[in-house]
Amino acid sequence: MFFLFEKHVLAMAAMRVLSSLIELTAAMLMLKLNRVEAALKINATLALVGPTIMMIVMALGLWGLAGKINPARMLAIILGVGLIFYGVRR
Prior knowledge:
- This protein is mostly helical.
- The chain has helices at about 5-35, 35-65, 70-90.
- The chain contains 3 helices and no strands.
């Protein structure tokens, strides 16, 4: 029972698995260190990892869609992603 995954979907899923492993490692490190100051530093680092992974996964998805949808829809998707980042910035 083998499945053939599209390479872009496989790359997107792999990035999410990597992200979850980074999060799990950070949580375990917080528990091991058992200090609020250290946990806050680790959490601050994770605040950079999450958006970076999201941008990479979105870029992979857009790259996979590049030849399949018309340019106007591609622009709408890119603008939507931009609005997400604009909406969550401080």
